[in-house]
Amino acid sequence: MSLLELRGVSRSYGEGSASVNALQEVSLSVDEGAMVAVMGPSGSGKSTLLSIAGTLEEPTSGEVRVGGQPVSAMSRGAKARLRRRTIGYVFQDFNLLPGLTAAENVALPLELDGTSGRKARLAALRTLERFGLGERASHYPDTMSGGERQRVAIARAMVGERKLVLADEPSGALDSVNGEAVMRLLHDACKKAGMGAVVVTHDAQLASWADRVVFLRDGHVTDQTAPPKDPQSLLTPEAET
């Protein structure tokens, strides 16, 4: 089953001669258990694609489906529930609340959705344990390493019944070892829990963890391919034509 489908999606900003086409006729699908990496230069439309996939922006044209349901038919309230219950977000700069412990950060989305504090905390602790952070549950973000903070952020994105994870440069603030660990966590979560993930990255080596790599340039999908044995070949001109 496709967790996410973008069908001929375009997004433009401004009007007339001043308009900018951020995305042009982009089609993309992400199935259960699959991780898709998105690569492209700055200004290629990667962040816009994530915003539209996460229902934070509406496309100018085209259709977006999440879990088989057309987003255009949803009310604002239904979209908000979809983001709380189905879609998880991972950011480059973690976006953890400094005044909350790791467990409280992970539990927060569940509590905002109406889950009792006790149940939310138990779910958060289980998820942190799954990512090897059980002993860090009561620690605050500023006492944790960058790799630990990003793992907390991933746990927050996956807690509860989330099925789709959208990650914007999740390894960008990490060294190569922690970056590799983050991609491995996302990959394993997809395979073991049947989640789907879209991961924006500039790093070809990290993109090799994905089941498919999508290349964007000037708002267009220029290629979609399975990662080759040598991830560095993703950077060759032939791969972007």
How would you characterize the overall build of this protein?
It is a single chain. 32% of the residues lie in helices and 27% in strands. By secondary structure, the chain is α/β, with parallel strands linked by helices. It folds into two domains: 161 residues, P-loop containing nucleotide triphosphate hydrolases (Rossmann fold), CATH 3.40.50.300; 68 residues. It has a six-stranded mixed sheet with strand order 6-7-8-3-9-10. Strands 2-1-4-5 form a four-stranded antiparallel sheet, covered by helices on one side. Strand 1 and strand 2 form a beta hairpin.
What is the helix/strand order? Answer: EEEHEEHEHHHEHEHEE
What is the total tally of β strands?
A: 10
Q: How many structural domains in the coordinates?
A: 2
Helix share, percent: 25-40%
The H-level CATH homologous superfamily of the largest domain, spelled out, is P-loop containing nucleotide triphosphate hydrolases
User: Sheet with the most strands?
Assistant: 6 strands, mixed
Beta-strand residue percentage: 25-35%
Strand order of the largest sheet: 6-7-8-3-9-10
Count of DSSP helices? 7
Low-confidence stretches: none
CATH class of the largest domain: Alpha Beta
- Stated plainly, the CATH topology of the largest domain is called Rossmann fold
Mean pLDDT across every amino acid position: 90
Q: Architecture of the largest domain, CATH level 2?
A: 3-Layer(aba) Sandwich
SS class: alpha/beta
The end-to-end distance, rounded to whole angstroms, is: 30 Å
Please state the overall shape, judged from the principal axes of the Cα atoms. globular
- What is the rounded Rg? 18 Å
